[in-house]
Amino acid sequence: MPVPPPEPGAPPPRPRFDWRRIVRSPRGAASLAVIAAALLLWPFAGFSWIPWMIGLGALVVLRLLRLEGLLRGWDLPLAFLVVVIGLMVSTGPWAWALAGSIGVLLAGLTQLPWWRLAAVGAVLCAASGIGFGFSVHQDRIELSQIQAQAGDLSRAGIAEESGDIVPTLVLAITQSGPDPDLLCAVLTPAAEEQLAQAAGAPDCAAAAVLLHQRGQTTAESRELGMPRGADPRLPAPAALVLDGCATAWAQTAGSEIGRVQAELVDPNQRTYLVTGFAPCG
To answer: What are phi and psi of 161, to 5 degrees?
Structure first.
C-alpha cells in the first residue's frame, strides 16, 4: 500500500533511529565494539577511572594536534582502544574471556532469532565464569598466604629472648592496662588460638583483656618464679619449654597453659616466639 504524501504545511516525519545504519560503516562498528569492550571490562578492573582518563587524554592530544582529519574520524575509536588496553592491563585473561563471552551473548540476544550465537555465548559465559571464579579464589588464597607470611615476619621482628618471654606474658596481664599487642605479638597463630580457647575468649585480643581483668588480683607475684630461659653460654636450642607454673601467668591464665612452648626464630639474636602451651606437671 503506497504511503500517502504528507499534507501541505505538515512537519516532516522524524527520522527513526536505526542501529544497523551505525554498524553498517566500519568506523561505527569499531566504535561500538571498543565501547562495549570497555564497559564490560570496567567492573573487572574495580571501576577504575584511570584508563578512562588516559583515553580522554589521548583524545585531547589527537584533537590538539589536529589529527582527526588525517585519521578520518578514527580518533574516537582509537581513544576507546586506549581505554580497553588500560583496562586489560588491570585485569587478567579470565576477565578478558568473560567479557568477550558476555559480548557474544549480548550480540546473539540483540540479533534474535539468532539462537545459535546466543547459545554459544551462554556456554562461553558459563565456562569463563567458572574460570574467573577459580582465579579469584586462587588470588584470595595467595593473598592470605602473603598476609600470613607478613605476620610471621612482623612477629619475628619483635620476638623475645627466652628469659624474657614469660615476664612479657606476665607483664601483659598484670600491668595497669590491658595490652593485647604486647601479649599477642610474641604468639604464633596456633598459640593465639590455644590461648583464646583456654581463656574462653573469641580471639587473642579478647583473651588479653579478660586475663588482664583476672591478673589484677595476682599482680604482687609477677616477679616470683620466673624461668631463666636458655643458657647464654651454650648455642640457642631450636625449641624449649619455659615453666611458668609458679608465676602469675599460670595463676591467672590457668595451669592448663602454665608451661610455655617456644621456638627459635633468630639464632643470631637468640629470640623466640611462643608456639603453644602445655599444662603444668
So the answer is: -65, 155
